[in-house]
Design goal:
Layout (H helix, E strand, L loop, with lengths): L22 H12 L3 H11 L2 H12 L3 E5 L5 E6 L2 H12 L14 H12 L7 H14 L3 H12 L18 E4 L15 E4 L10 E12 L5 E8 L2 E8 L10 E6 L10 E14 L5 H37 L1 E2 L2 E2 L4 H32 L3 H32 L11 H7 L2 H4 L4 H14 L1 H12 L6 H13 L8 H20 L2 H12 L22 H6 L6
Helix pairs in contact: 1-5, 1-9, 2-5, 3-4, 5-8, 5-9, 6-7, 6-8, 8-9, 8-10, 9-10, 9-16, 9-17, 10-11, 10-13, 10-14, 10-16, 13-16, 14-16, 15-16, 16-17
Bound molecules: flavin-adenine dinucleotide.
Length: 553
């Protein structure tokens, strides 16, 4: 080896660590009712941090899915081929019940336990979490068609990954997708033009059968078995369950035109679809499609927040690890005061997002058990948090990437993948404006939701006067809920919730720095902190905050 090539002052590879070694997540898991799942989450966390899982995540992204529209003889097949690593990732996710399994698990905290598994395993690869998430999300919407739910829910919840296109009733486990967005409208789904025509006297599938014709501009995970589709029925926009393969074994009329060439999320396939007289079954009432599918959207929105928390934690961990080992100007980067401020700020953001995500997972769990106050709380808190957490993600990823200097800009570091993924959760399932407007709608039109939200903030009253003042200002601001202010108000509500959770349950150093930087009022004076990450007020115990983020290898 020539002497010029001695490698030094580079960090050791971050493999063989426990992704679940995450104090904010573990305490939230216990607090929200999932303590019984802790050991399983730790096992999955160790698997997620293994060299093998990391390699699978990389391979699944470096070898993206390929669309095969026809076989070699010219028959239409509409199949997507995945790298074996994708199937390995899916197998682990489904075996661990990160998909619909909680819906058949009666233990309190089942959804929180699943959230923790989703959070740690998602660090390996975000793309395969998409079908996992949609399978989780479809169940509450599907229950609007009790016969279909009885027939398919056990297969959706089965912890068996059964890849390949076959009639759904013949498979050992099913995966689901959603198909709403059309060329002329994604947020505005009422602009959908796909037509649903009732089948008269169809012997194959019984009553409630329709034939769907039209297109969808985005349908992810098109190798799923069942899709929740919006289409115009005689009585208006309605929700349908569409099998990829008909019960008689023939391929349904769901033709994949192209796969999207996406910024990130490259392991996952997102297709453009043409439905040509595709068989589908009505879910819920005709004309109430949005009301029905919103139940699915609510669950995927929760996963947008959880997935964002995962991405933040993953980027933070890489940054903290690098800074703990890399020396510049005679000191470890993590000990340079300005870098410590950057890392601590990233850690505070990450912990606040994780706390909110798990509070929402707890609300989903209790709402699934019939708790109406928790359902009302989730209605507003989820929309506001989806808006704000996802909005913070790209900046967080960019700043974490920069902590690695040039190495962070290189694919091998894993940072570019996290960076490319970061904007997606904000676009999907209600883009920023739509999520903020939804929070406003809940605030103004569902008083029980606003009441439950402020009752949650009240639980932290008196613990920190800066938070109390911020909540007081927020209440005043909400007296003008005009549309143009929706982002500002959603941000304010999300920050207040994060602050309240941190003050009650967070590590003192994290809570103090969060409230000081995100909520304290400068009253027009120089605030002592700025808008970029790494501008925390002086006096922040950065070392205590960073310790919680630095992986132990
Ligand atoms: C990787 C990926 C995967 C996806 N997978 C799926 C899938 O599986 N199934 C599916 O159905 N869809 C899927 N989508 C589509 C996604 O849900 C839509 O892109 C999203 O809902 C936005 O719709 P749109 O693209 O039509 O944008 P538009 O609705 O045209 O919105 C454009 C912009 O206008 C804003 N806007 C819209 N209405 C208002 C308003 N009233 N006031 C102010 N601003 C407004 C939006 O916030 C957005 O910023 C996927 C998208 C991506 C990127």
């Amino acid at each position: 080896m020539p002497p010029t090539h001695e490698v030094f002052n580079q960090p050791p590879a971050l493999t063989g660590y426990d992704v679940s070694d995450d104090p904010a997540m573990l305490s939230a898991l216990r607090r929200e009712g999932g303590a019984w799942a802790q050991e399983a989450v730790r096992d999955l966390g160790r698997l997620a941090g293994s060299a093998q899982a990391q390699a699978q995540g990389r391979q699944a992204n470096e070898n993206p899915p390929v669309l095969r529209t026809h076989d070699r003889f010219g028959h239409r097949i509409d199949e997507v081929e995945f790298h074996p690593a994708w199937h390995e990732l899916m197998t682990v996710a489904v075996q661990h019940g990160l998909h619909a399994a909680p819906w058949t698990d009666k233990r309190p905290g089942a959804h929180v336990a699943r959230a923790a598994g989703f959070y740690v395993w998602g660090a390996v690869d975000a793309g395969h979490c998409c079908p996992v998430s949609m399978t989780y999300a479809i169940v509450p919407a599907l229950r609007h068609a009790p016969d279909l739910a009885r027939r398919f829910e056990p297969l959706l919840a089965a912890q068996y990954y059964d890849a390949g296109l076959r009639p759904p009733d013949t498979k050992r486990g099913l995966l689901a997708g959603m198909s709403m967005t059309e060329k002329q409208g994604g947020s505005d789904v009422r602009a959908n033009t796909t037509r649903a025509v009732p089948v008269q006297g169809d012997g194959e599938a019984g009553g409630g059968s329709y034939l769907l014709t039209g297109h969808k501009w985005f349908t992810s995970a098109p190798m799923g078995d069942l899709f929740m589709v919006l289409a115009q029925a005689p009585a208006g926009l309605s929700c349908f369950l569409l099998p990829r393969v008909r019960p008689d074994g023939s391929r349904n009329g769901m033709h994949l035109q192209r796969l999207k060439d996406k910024l990130g999320n490259r392991s996952n396939a997102s297709a453009e679809v043409e439905y040509d007289q595709a068989l589908a079954w009505l879910v819920g009432e005709e004309g109430r499609g949005v009301r029905t599918i919103i139940e699915m959207v609510n669950m995927t929105r929760l996963d947008c927040v959880l997935g964002t928390a995962t991405g933040m934690r993953a980027a933070l961990t890489l940054a903290a690890h690098h800074a703990a080992h890399r020396t510049a100007f005679g000191r470890k980067l993590a000990d340079q005061p300005l870098m410590a401020s950057v890392l601590a700020d990233l850690a505070i953001e990450s912990e606040a997002t994780t706390m909110a995500a798990f509070r929402l997972a707890g609300a989903a769990d209790r709402a699934a058990g019939g708790d109406e106050a928790e359902a009302a709380f989730r209605r507003l808190a989820l929309a506001a948090t989806k808006y704000w957490a996802c909005k913070r993600a790209p900046g967080h990823a960019a700043e974490a990437l920069e902590c690695l200097g040039g190495n962070g800009y290189v694919e091998e570091s894993g940072m570019p993948r996290l960076y490319r993924e970061a904007p997606l959760a904000s676009i999907w399932e209600g883009s920023g404006n739509v999520a903020a407007l939804d929070a406003l709608r809940a605030l103004t039109r569902q008083p029980e939701s606003a009441e439950a939200f402020f009752a949650e903030l009240d639980l932290a009253a008196g613990a920190d006067s800066r938070l109390d003042q911020a909540v007081g200002r927020l209440r005043k601001e909400l007296s003008d809920p005009s549309e143009a202010r929706a982002r500002y108000l959603a941000e304010g509500m999300a920050l207040a919730l994060q602050g309240a959770l941190l003050v009650r349950h967070g590590a003192p150093a994290v809570a103090d720095a969060f409230v000081a930087s995100r909520l304290a009022d400068g009253s027009g004076e120089f605030r002592g902190w700025g808008h970029a990450y790494g501008t925390l007020p002086s006096g922040t115990d950065t070392a205590a905050v960073i310790r919680r983020a630095t992986p132990d290898i």
